[in-house]
Amino acid sequence: MDYFLELFLGGLTRGSIYALIALGYTMVYGIIQLINFAHGEIYMIGAFTALIVISVLMSTGMNPVAVILIAGFVAVIYSCAYGFTLEKIAYKPLRNAPRLSALISAIGMSLFLQNYVLLAQTCDFLPFPNLIPDFECIEPFAHIIGSTDVVILVTTAVVMIILTILIRYTKIGKAMRATSQDRVMASLMGIDVNTVISFTFILGSATAAIGGVLIASHIGMINFYIGFIAGIKAFVAAVLGGIGSLPGAVLGGFVLGWTESFATGYISSDYEDVFAFLFLVLILIFKPSGILGRSEQSKV
Amino acid sequence: MRKFAEIRKSLYVALWFIFLTFPIMVIRINPLEKTVEWRWMNMALVGIGTFFLSFLWRYLISKKEEGSKRAEEKQNEKISKLRRLIENRKIIAGSVVAGALLAAVFPFVVSLYQTNIMTTALIYVMLGLGLNIVVGLAGLLDLGYVAFYAVGAYAYALLNYHFGLNFWMVLPVGAALGALFGILLGFPVLRLRGDYLAIVTLGFGEIIRLILENWNEFSFGPSGISNISRPPLFGIELSVQNATVYMYYIMIFLCLVTIFIVKRLQDSRIGRAWVALREDEVACQAMGIDRTKTKLTAFALGATWAGMGGVVFAAKTTFVNPASFTIWESIIILCIVVLGGMGSVIGVITGAFIIILLPEYLRVFSEFRMLMFGIILVVMMVFRPGGIISGVRRTYKFEGKNF
Amino acid sequence: EDTVKVGVAGAHSGDLASYGLPSVRAAELVVKKANENGGILGSRIELFIEDDVCKPEIATNTATKLISQGVDAVVGHICSGATKAALAIYKDANVICMSPSATNPPLTQSGDYPNFYRTIASDDAQARLQVDYAIEVLKAEKIAVIHDKGDYGKGLAEFAKIFIGKEPGAEVVLYEGITPGAVDYSAVVQKIKHSKAEAVIFGGYHPEASKIVMQMRRKRIKAHFISDDGVRDATFIKVAGKYAEGVYATGPKDTTKNPLAIAAIEAHKKAYGSEPGAFFLNAYAASQALLSAIEKAGSTDYEAVTSALKNYYVETPLGKIKFDERGDAIGIGFSMYQVKNGNYIEVQ
Amino acid sequence: MLIIKDIHTFYGHIEALKGVTLEISEGEIVTLVGSNGAGKSTTLMSVCGISPPRTGDIHFMGIPIHNLPPHKIASLGICQVPEGRHIFPHLTVAENLDMGAFLRNDKRQVRRDVEYVFELFPVLAKRKKQSGGTLSGGEQQMLAISRAIMAKPKLLLLDEPSLGLSPLVVRQIFNIIFKINEDSRTTIFLVEQNANLALKIAHRGYVMENGKVTIADSAGNLVRNEEVKKAYLGI
Amino acid sequence: MSFGGLKALDGIDLYVERGEIVALIGPNGAGKTTFFNCISGIYAPTEGDIFIMKPQAGTAKRINGLKPNQVTSKGLARTFQNIRLFQNMTVLENVMMGRHVRTNAGIAGAIFRNRKTRDEEKQIVERSYGIIKKIGLAYYVNECAKNLPYGAQRRLEIARAIATEPFLLLLDEPAAGMNPQETKELDMLIQRIRDEENISILLIEHDMKLVMSISERIYVVDYGKKIAEGTPEEIKINPEVIKAYLGEDAY
Ligand SMILES: Nc1ncnc2c1ncn2[C@@H]1O[C@H](COP(=O)(O)OP(=O)(O)OP(=O)(O)O)[C@@H](O)[C@H]1O
Ligand SMILES: Nc1ncnc2c1ncn2[C@@H]1O[C@H](COP(=O)(O)OP(=O)(O)OP(=O)(O)O)[C@@H](O)[C@H]1O
Ligand SMILES: [Mg+2]
Ligand SMILES: [Mg+2]
User: Fold this and answer.
1) Shared-domain flag, residues B246 and B307
2) Within-domain flag for D10
3) B272 plus B344 within the same structural domain
4) Cβ of E208 under 8 Å from any chain D Cβ?
5) Does residue B270 belong to any structural domain of this protein?
6) Whose CA is nearest to atom 2 of ligand 1?
7) Which ligand is located closest to the Cα atom of residue D134?
8) Whose CA is closest to atom 31 on ligand 2?
């Protein structure tokens, strides 16, 4: 039973890591139906920026708590800036092009950003300081769940709730939903479609940066390639939950995390990803638009 | 006045990029040594570089917009000119002969290296044409195409290892296995739409790779299978040098066959059904087209070429291991199809040459290679979103014969 | 002017770049030094650096390219798979290829590749040492064997599993492959804990090793952690920090006191401003061995260089080495290291 | 209020509008009739900025709008019920109406307007929670019109509002158009195939052929015009 | 047939005789399109049966539960309320797609292009062009479907449906978006199709002038229930129909 619980919690943490990245993925997908392959790279850049800020500030001997806050803030700002620029350069000129062209453009951007960081920084793994102190109160359970895990879990939940509220109830949220369904009509209703799309990228990038900082401090190291693998997994999570749906992304992340965790725990980690993908296929066979995805069947 | 505004715009762009690249380009940290290095030079470079590039970018974008307007105005004219060119038998015959001659003497005028990478490129031409059936014609986004490639490669590797079968015997087996896997994998998932299909096929690609990686008894795991025999020429074993050249001719032959078949399929009843299916599924069903069956045919046919490509790959490299079949491989093949121009055979060929040969020739730029490759992908798509040779489908025209 | 042409091949971009780039730097440093001393045989040495992204099919292109450029010898490739694919081409062109990192045993043991040499121990040698140490010194009875599914890590783990199986009184309680690059390994770590292993033998590279060690220690698992040359790397200690303490790793004998090694590392720091990465010293030794063999042979002739490699010792950062009939280095003694106070210290 | 001066609009190389000039004054109902493919919808799209004219001017209340992006034009008080309805398929009926009021900030009045619209079309009230995409053709058309009413525009552009509606509802729609124009002095530009009805409520009308305006006259005169009768009224 | 709690179709009985033109009318949201969807296999009705009797075969066949493509191959063809053409294909190709179900060249045929396939291809093009000419679209034959005027697109949908060789044609609001003059032309077209091709027709339409002039019998539905049936004359004066659908001052 203990073992089960441990695997369950482990899967939960892993799942919320996927979820944090998947949230941005799904949001961008929702608005322009583009698989933003470079989303993982935004997350990687967020983590790198944070690490750079930390290193610089640490060398000045600043208070660690202040350092963490500043680093997180700067990482979010920069990720947003990168997300914004990315959209302007690689996606906006392709608004009316075939969707696959935009996908290739995204792949190109992903390659570019990886190698940009590789060349400007390093190919090596860099240690990322654990920013989150061990909490006293969970010390007795430390063998099951760590403080970083708790922080990641809570952040995922908070981010999801904030985003859901934003999209459900605010004006910009309404504009986002309208834009995602019918761009022409949205602009006829007075919505500035370009601004809305930029805003969505910025929002998605911000969550990616938050994810980047937390995940990097959970894993303890980063390099230029972390974005790609995490990006693919997050994409799977987003699809599993029903792409375009925020709670879906989170649920998809959890389901994926649990599948991997239990498959490893009870079967073998050799085939961990095989089980994850098989499970994905199974779910999609029974629910072709993901767990929480809306059915795409349009009325004839 | 206009000029001034332009300069100001570029200035803003430069400032923005200086800001954007500041942490990553200027500061280099080394957390191991706890040192921080400031590279102010880079900041100046970024500033100046983006300042000028932004002029170029805006110029090109405006050109493109104008171009798209004007191009279409002139399209008719252009098309008819092109058509006249194409329909001029002499020119066709001339270029075909020239191309054939060039292809025939190629290995004798260039180095072994050039022949070798050309063979690689030709393999990708074949893969691209195969994937083009799935993505370009039937509109099914397949990110796991590499799975069938792996099936073909391992089929040859294993049959050769265990039973000593040679290349020519396994080539049809590889094709058949590819098709079989295409049907097996396609069957449960083809009712999924667009991006859902993409992710599931991606998953299948990974599953196949992971199985090859983990199932040592079957596939020899990550260390792979080596010393696979090269194709024999009438039972004669060739030296590496000659084998490379031989391989080149085999690929030329296979590519010609592929082009022939793909062209024929494209212009057939089934080819039309694929295109229609891409346009509107509901209407297609109302026309009596069996959605699943038609999609499955496309999927299986695409996989057939991948299976064959795999056999050739194993014979050329003489070694297979799972590392050759990562998702990047699927992505590369997809890039070939889209960059070249979906649905266009010449486009796919051009795409394959660019995507495969470009990184090879970019070797001059060594570590900037992949960076440039990424930029080129983006720039190509931004300025030629329909691909290099945008797929002008051969539409059925009625030539007004009398009835 | 005639130059001696040396190729350097390996992964210089993509996800495995961090294992390939150090070898480029090693070769550059060695060649620079040699050229400063007037080159060899009176001619300058020229490097040809080619990327193979660790992919067999690209490696064949790389190899043909190097051959077309007329290289006399090659340092590389990095991954065993790519090396195997490329070797057939080098063999046909009579070019010697010396890898700093391809550990797959058949490369030397099968006899298929007479032109292949390496400055790293093959998997079975390392695995032997790890298993013996775990059982005899650490007295472990229950051992978990973990690998990264890669051709290096899994090769090692396979041998370790076989060797443990042959030892009475010891058993493999867990044999698992992990996915490199995954965001965390908590499930595997739980499984290690569940298996009550007293020692963990890990085959793979330092990024995964440090993640596993960190998670093990955070989950309060005290089992010994024994790993390989891919982990015996300063980065591992820096990344894993306090959790690295007590970790074992095998590696070539006592390089830290070797003045050549110290000098090589210093030179790297001076030239590139950072600690060298994985397989740096192996690549350094390989470059040195090749150059010295050419010098000894008096020409770049294949036969002559082959015989020089097999008959003359050369001083390298890894010690005094020459090569045996099959191409494995003699003189690269292997020993066990343990992290103590943030440094790998040789034990035994 | 709206002045269109010699606009030329292109789809790629097809010139859909070949110099259209027309004018609408405040408080008018003006109708545009013409056969299929004459360029009526294109004219409306040009006014809204979706397919901006390549040459020519459009002024709305004195402001040149031919270079403005669609959302800016909308914010000046122009709203369109487009051909093909363009309902947001995954928003519910209520949310679709809410989108109509996107630019409005008077929440209380908006709520009252929703009630008003539901009174006009009780069918919609019954389907409040149903997503727009699953409505029947006619229901969608009613929703599209209601959504435009929610925007409280100064100028309302209607593209074939009667399309797919039952005879009863068609008459009702025209009554509503008439009423909106009377009550809130909303200016209306109406494109309609059902020229009989359109000319009944319109003050003035234009006839369009092949991308050009061929006849401009008062509604009464157009109804009596022999050519119009024959070509568009089916009499 | 119901969606959630809503009963979209509630026990409708309807028959079409051979060679008849029958109209289905009713207020918006009455369930007419849904009825078509049930017949053509897009939805499966929860209750009730659909039978067809082919002109040649004597026995009735039950077709509910079949997939849309199977229904089409049995000889029912339809058009859509919201036009669904293959936008980027030419007019000719659109009609050629209709021939798909009546031809059978396979992969082997495509690759080897033997005599049979060649003949079949030729026959597809010729038959398609014949239909296009008959429908009056010959002028547009090589034009992309999306560039056609609305009315022509509607006619093209009909042409495409006829190409599948149906014995019953289901038309969903064929006159929508046409002006009175064009509607008149459509009227004649439909009658010609019935007479020349010998196809029965069931149509949904809100244009009463067309319905009254063309149809031999009319069914009226409201809230998924049939409220009346009869000849145009009977329907015109049926008080229930006037109240629910036509309005007081109609005709
Ligand atoms: N997206 C488009 N691409 C190319 N041509 C188009 C496009 N939309 C319309 N056209 C062409 O422009 C011309 C005018 O079309 P428009 O839709 O404005 O006509 P309309 O008067 O509204 O006709 P209808 O009564 O059918 O709605 C037509 O010839 C049409 O074929
Ligand atoms: N998928 C669905 N989900 C929920 N309700 C639906 C769905 N499809 C149709 N409906 C409802 O069923 C009813 C019947 O719709 P249908 O489209 O058959 O009407 P119709 O008679 O064709 O009307 P119109 O003349 O306006 O086209 C409508 O009220 C519609 O809202
Ligand atoms: Mg129109
Ligand atoms: Mg309907």
Assistant:
1) yes
2) yes
3) yes
4) yes
5) yes
6) D11
7) 2
8) D135
Summarised one tens digit per residue, pLDDT across range C118-177 is: 888 888 888 888 888 888 888 888 899 999 888 888 888 988 999 998 888 888 899 988
E8 alpha carbon – ligand 2 mean position (Å) = 7
Distance CA E65, CA E42 (A): 9
Average pLDDT over chain B reads 83
Ligand 2: residue of E1, E3, E79 to mutate (most ligand atoms within 8 A of CB) is E3
User: Which atom of ligand 1 lies closest to the CA of D17?
Assistant: 14
Residues B287 and B379 placed together within one structural domain of the fold: yes
Q: Which CATH number goes with the domain that contains D200?
A: 3.40.50.300
Give the whole-number percent of chain B exceeding pLDDT 90: 18
**Residue B323 to residue B150: CA distance in whole angstroms:** 10
E89 and chain B in contact, CB less than 8 A: yes
Please report, as a single letter, which amino acid is at residue B5.
Answer: A
Please name the residue whose Cα sits nearest to atom 10 of ligand 1.
E147
- Domains along the sequence of chain E with CATH: 1-75+166-251 (3.40.50.300), 85-156 (no CATH)
CA pair distance D48, D74, nearest whole angstrom: 7
> How many Å apart are CA B206 and CA B220, to the nearest integer?
17
Residue from B75, B287, B305 whose CB has the most chain E CBs within 10 Å, to mutate: B287
Q: What is the pTM of this model?
A: 0.88
Residues of E with CB below 8 A from A300's CB? 33, 37, 42, 80, 84
Is C275 in contact with B33 (Cβ distance < 8 A)? yes
Complex ipTM, two decimals? 0.86
Q: Which amino acid is at D86?
A: H
Closest C-alpha to ligand 1, atom 24: D36
Whether residues B7 and B115 fall in one domain: no
B353 in a domain, yes or no?
yes
Which SS3 state, helix, strand or coil, does residue D79 take? Answer: strand
Determine if the peptide bond prior to E100 is cis (ω within 30°). Answer: no
Cβ distance B309 to B155 under 8 Å?
A: no
Question: How many structural domains does chain B have?
Answer: 2
Q: Ligand 1: which atom is nearest the Cα of residue D34?
A: 21
Say yes or no: B148 and B10 in one domain. no
pLDDT, one tens digit per residue, over C178-230 is: 888 888 888 888 889 888 888 999 988 888 898 899 888 888 888 999 998 88
At E251 the pLDDT is 43
Pairing of strands D212-218, D204-209: antiparallel
The answer to whether the CB of D210 falls within 8 A of the CB of D39 is: yes
Q: How far is the CA of A88 from the centre of ligand 4 (A)?
A: 42
Is residue D212, in this structure, part of any structural domain at all? yes
Return the HEC string of chain E.
CEECCEECCCCCCCCCCCCCEEEEECCCCCCHHHHHHHHCCCCCCCCCCCEECCCCCCCCEECCCCCHHHHHHHCEEECCCCCCCCCCCEHHHHHHHHHHHHCCCCHHHHHHCCHHHHHHHHHHHHHHHHHHHHHCCHHHCCCEHHHCCHHHHHHHHHHHHHCCCCCEEEEECCCCCCCHHHHHHHHHHHHHHHHHHCCEEEEECCCHHHHHHHCCEEEEEECCEEEEEECHHHHHHCHHHHHHHHCCCCC
Are residues B162 and B218 part of one domain?
Answer: yes
- Considering the domain boundaries, does residue B92 fall inside one? no
Touch between chain E and chain A: 3 or more Cβ pairs under 8 Å: yes
Residues 6+ apart with CB under 8 A from E44: E38, E64, E65
In this complex, do B382 and A94 lie within 8 Å of one another by their Cβ atoms?
yes
The domain in which residue D9 lies consists of 1-76+188-235
Q: What is the residue range of B33's domain?
A: 2-53
Indicate which atom in ligand 1 lies nearest the CA of residue D38.
Answer: 21
What is the number of domains present in chain D? 1
* Contacting residues of A for E80, CB less than 8 Å apart: 300
For ligand 4, the distance from its centroid to the CA atom of residue E27, given in whole angstroms, is: 9
Residue D18, domain member (yes or no): yes
- Please check whether residue B369 lies inside any domain of the structure: yes
